[in-house]
Amino acid sequence: MNPAVAGLGRHGGMLARVLPFGIYIAVLAAGPFLRDALPAGWDSRWLYAVQIGAVILALVWFARAYAELRPLALGWREALEATAAGIAIFVLWINLDFSWALLGEPGAGFDPRTQWGDTDWRLAAVRLFGAAAVVPIMEELFWRSFILRFIDDHDFMRLPAAAASWRALAISAALFAIEHHQWLAGLLAGLAYGSLYMRSGKLWSPILAHAVTNLLLGLWVVATGAWSFW
Question: N or C terminus: which one in the chain shows less Cβ crowding within 10 Å?
Fold first, then answer.
């Protein structure tokens, strides 16, 4: 973490958790404008690589602010529980796409196929890497490490995960649900990931569960061609 941020105390910790997520959302929101600004012939799907790359740079820049990510370790029981939760959320995610459980109309999603219908494995690999390796860290830092604890204590960094309230879990999960097109699946995921964080006291627990969900979802999307889930 750079010296200027280090001197901000809890505000620096907040910035370190909010900015990577903010960058991700900002690039997503600016997508239509960025696509229109690309030179003719450029494949706009590679903007996802730019989006993920920007998030990685932000995470690296603030790395020293993420004390709870050191060391990178989980007990075998915690890892097993997180993996099982990740698998369960994946199963729920692909089955809870009822019309009433969606926010808005389903979009086309991220389709990595070429104009001839073949999968562009470079695009698919970038999407899988971003979804399974980058997004879980970025989102868990924001939603669980920051939002979940901030609801109970604005000086959130002094609040142990295990001391977070069920009220904070419910509110943070509801906000997490609103972020997703499949709000019901998002709500259940938010409750599961938040519960793992509170039970284990380790952020790597929901990160692992989130990564398992996203990896399985990505592999399933590529195998089935259900691009709208991406």
Answer: N
Distance, CA of 212 to CA of 128 (rounded, Å):
11
Are residues 6 and 64 in contact, defined by beta-carbon separation less than 8 angstroms? Answer: yes
> Per-residue DSSP letters for 57-102?
HHHHHTGGG-GGG-S----HHHHHHHHHHHHHHHHHHHH---GGGB
In angstroms, rounded to a whole number, what is the distance separating the alpha carbons of residues 143 and 153? 14
Which residue bears the tokens 């399933």? 220
Is 106's pLDDT higher than 80? no
The residue type at 15: L
56-100 tens-digit pLDDT: 999 999 999 999 999 998 999 999 999 999 999 999 999 999 999
Roughly what angle, to the nearest 10 degrees, separates helices 183-200 and 166-178?
140
What are the domain boundaries of the chain? 3-229
Of the candidates 201, 192, 200, the one whose C-alpha atom is nearest the C-alpha of residue 172 is 192
Given the structure tokens 């519960």, which residue do they identify?
Answer: 195
